Amino acid sequence: MFVELHILQNFAPANLNRDDTGSPKDCEFGGFRRARVSSHCWKRAIRTAFRDEGLIPASDRAIRTKRVLEEVVKRLAARGRDEEGARPRVIAALASVELTVKEDGKTEYLLFLGEREIAALADACEQWWDALTPAAPPTGEAGPKPKKKAAKDSVPVEVKTALGRRFEGGRAADLALFGRMLADMPERNIDAAAQVAHAISTNRVSMEFDFYTAVDDLNSAETAGAGMMGTIEFNSACFYRYANIDVTALAKSLDPDLARRTVSAFIHASVNAIPTGKQNSMAAHNKPSFVMAVVREDSACNLANAFLKPARPGREYDLCQASMRQLDEHWGKLSGMYGTQGIRWIGIATMESETLKNLSVYQVAISSDGSQIAALANQAVSAAFGSPTTR
Questions:
Q1: Average pLDDT, stretch 301-312?
Q2: Is 49 exposed, middle or buried (0-12, 13-18, 19+ CB in 10 A)?
Q3: Alpha-carbon distance 109 to 67, whole Å?
Q4: Residues 327 and 303: beta-carbon distance below 8 Å
């Protein structure tokens, strides 16, 4: 079972997602240059929305960090443990499950850990405080590997086993959605239940440059010129965004209630989340004009090929309306060629329903709180976890 999202979102001039040179990311698609926002950028924005909008409580979320040592030490200190005594014990606990802490107090790579996993690690350090007293590295040996081995070997086998069991994902919604890879604990890797495509513009884009100057407020009246000058690249584009959730895979990691809430939160966050790149300079806070959710019983389907030929505004339709018309036409062609078997439910929220032909019948009614998006999310969740919805 899959829940898909298809979103059209037009942005004012912006640089939402930069490459290593500071330029807006782009790509070639259909033989034309397109604006692009990476999937990682959108996933980060979605995870931030989970937190900032209160869509998923902290206890059901995960934290991505290299600073797990300091976090656990802080929690142990709050319980009355001495920080200097806690630090080597947490290092030993992490080393026992093959996670190394470097000299700067950070792990070798970012760890994506559920809040419950971090809490369980703190509980384990508290419970086995005496057993986690680390041994010193053997005489004449130095460096991270001997230290890690000494810390690991100092932990009793039964404690290692118990600690290893604590890293099971912590029933974290975003961890179940986006997955994780722990290079030193491959048995604790989690396959992502969600797939998020790179957003690409429906239109052909050209990069533009903003030349700016900054004035030194303490310049004397006789001093000419700017205190600083530079350029910022930007573009303006209508993006097609696609994502899906494998509901069956999600349900294996989460309990039924949390799985339902996670799908609903993902829909709301996907609609509301906007990348933060250069927003202080651009303020491109533009909501989607079109959101479609599809609940499928079989394989997923990305509709990006609707825009192999770039959308263009005309006398009758603006760029977003033209993009909706192309998506609507593409949907009609796909349905005609492959049929609609396996599609359990379709719902659309849009301000431009008169632009649609094939998809207009799927527009959802406004919910009691005055939101089409809320109605869309509720009905999509019901269709994915309940019985098929007929129209």
A1: 97
A2: buried
A3: 10
A4: yes
Task: Please state the rounded mean pLDDT for residues 299-319.
Answer: 94
Task: Burial-class residue 275 by CB neighbours within 10 Å (0-12, 13-18, 19+).
Answer: buried
Beta strands in the chain (DSSP E): 2-10, 26-29, 32-37, 62-65, 111-114, 194-196, 199-201, 208-214, 228-234, 238-246, 290-296, 343-350
What distances in angstroms separate CA 195 from CA 76, 177, 191, 307, one per listed residue? Answer: 37, 8, 11, 20
Average pLDDT over residues 329-353: 93
CA–CA separation, 313 vs 329, rounded Å?
A: 16
Average pLDDT score, the chain: 90
pLDDT for the residue 152: 62
**pLDDT tens readout for residues 143-172:** 555 565 666 667 888 888 888 887 887 789
Domain boundaries along the sequence of the chain: 2-43+194-217+228-385, 63-171
Helix (H) or strand (E) holding 162: helix 157-165
**From CA 37, how far away is CA 42, in angstroms rounded?**
7
| Residue of 376, 370, 321 lying closest to 346 (CA atoms) | 376
The per-residue pLDDT for 141 is: 56
> Strand, helix or coil at 18?
strand
CB–CB of 248/1 below 8 Å? yes
